[in-house]
Design a protein that fits this description.
It is a single chain. The protein has 371 residues and is an alpha/beta fold. It has 2 domains: 154 residues, Four Helix Bundle (Hemerythrin (Met), subunit A); 183 residues, 3-Layer(aba) Sandwich (Rossmann fold), CATH 3.40.50.300. It contains 11 helices and 6 strands. It has a 6-stranded mixed sheet with strand order 2-3-1-4-5-6, with helices on both faces. Strand 4, helix 9 and strand 5 form a beta-alpha-beta unit. Helix 2 packs antiparallel against helix 4 and helix 3 packs antiparallel against helix 8.
């Protein structure tokens, strides 16, 4: 299969933590410039040349870096729904647009100010032969320092925008790359139900696995591969999501909101894992409430739902019976399995492969990929 990569559009964007970080970079470049070494140049010309060159270096460095910030951001109106919806967890799209617009206008203002002061310095002349050279040199220095001050002031006013965008990019850059054309199975459920272990077991994902709540802080993509026939491999992207607790949306942690955004925007199929063990963090009732929350975030008439009860090797009979009663009452098939003993795992995987095979073949047809 010829692979085409779809990268995280927020990765590789540089935003200064604060205005001073950007100013320090620009001033280092400007102050490295030394005075012209031509012996026949007068003191006034030498001073003018140095001041103009340093001002130009300063405003060019600043404006180019500000423009780079604006241009490096993806088109917010054309983002994949997953990235767009996750961004909204941390910051409204309109606020990001306003911040970028202010950075753009600041870049233009810095260029204008720099050019204005270059014109002013070029215009400095002796009034007559009696005008002391030292006075002219001081006037040039004064204009240079004034230019530095006004340009710096424009950058310092971006403190709020830099802080917001730096924080946003730092969080969004951690999101994974994925191919939105390929089938995607999102694994969801209560915290500590074995989601990471499942994803690590069936795919090439590198996920942290631990027996304490909220191990998973981010979504992680892995790829599951199997044979459709002797000549054709099939691929399924499998997504590990942070665990959920039974609580209102407004009280959920960002990690939980991230899991719900993944459910809302990514899947061709969803696997919900119940925890049927004596170690379960959530009661059966809480897990059922979490299940109802999860299924409210996607259209079950379009998205295939798989349900499994994990950890039956250390089963809590009361939890198991209550969950089985719920799924039976609602006509839902629940696979009983253990990722430790592997009981029931192959049955679930085979059914997932059967359901996703047609989705994968449709991907091949729609993208004209040779089978």
């Amino acid at each position: 299969m010829e692979e085409e990569k779809f990268g995280n559009p927020f990765r590789g964007i540089w935003i200064p933590k604060n205005p001073q970080e950007l100013l320090d970079i620009a001033f280092r470049r400007a102050t490295r410039i030394s005075a012209p070494s031509k012996q026949k140049m007068s003191a006034i010309k030498r001073k003018k040349s140095l001041a103009i060159t340093r001002i130009r270096a300063l405003f060019t460095e600043l404006s180019e870096r500000l423009w780079k910030i604006v241009r490096s951001f993806p088109n917010l109106d054309e983002l994949h729904p997953f990235y767009a919806s996750v961004m909204e967890i941390y910051c409204k799209k309109d606020d990001v647009k306003i911040a970028l617009a202010k950075i753009k206008s600041s870049a233009l203002l810095i260029e204008r100010l720099g050019k204005e002061y270059i014109i002013k310095i070029k215009a400095v002349r002796k009034e007559d032969e009696l005008t002391p050279t030292a006075k002219i040199l001081r006037e040039i220095d004064k204009l240079r320092v004034e230019a530095y001050g006004r340009i710096s002031s424009v950058v310092k006013k971006l403190k709020k925008e830099f802080s917001m965008l730096n924080d946003l990019v730092r969080k969004l850059a951690k999101l994974p790359d994925f191919d939105p054309r390929l089938p995607i199975l999102v694994v969801a459920g209560p915290t500590n139900a074995g989601k990471s272990t499942f994803v690590k077991t069936v795919s090439n994902a590198k996920v942290e696995v631990a027996n304490y709540p909220f191990t998973t802080k981010n979504v992680t993509f892995g790829v599951m591969k199997w044979k459709l026939n002797p000549a054709l491999d099939a691929y399924l992207q499998v997504v590990d999501t942070p665990g959920l607790l039974d609580r209102p949306l407004e009280k959920r942690k960002p990690e939980e909101k991230l899991a719900l955004k993944a459910l809302q925007t990514l899947p061709n199929a969803v696997l919900f894992l119940f925890d049927g063990s004596t170690d379960a963090v959530c009661s059966a009732k809480e897990q059922i409430n979490i299940f109802n929350t999860v299924t409210s975030f996607f259209d079950m008439s379009k998205i295939k739902l798989f349900v499994a009860i994990n950890k039956i090797d250390i089963v809590d009979k009361e939890i198991l019976e209550e969950i089985l009663h719920f799924v039976s009452k609602n006509g839902i098939r629940a696979y009983k399995m253990s990722l430790i003993t592997k009981e029931g795992v192959n049955e679930l995987l085979e059914d997932i492969k059967k359901e996703m095979a047609e989705v994968y073949l449709r991907y091949l047809r729609e993208n004209k990929v040779s089978e």
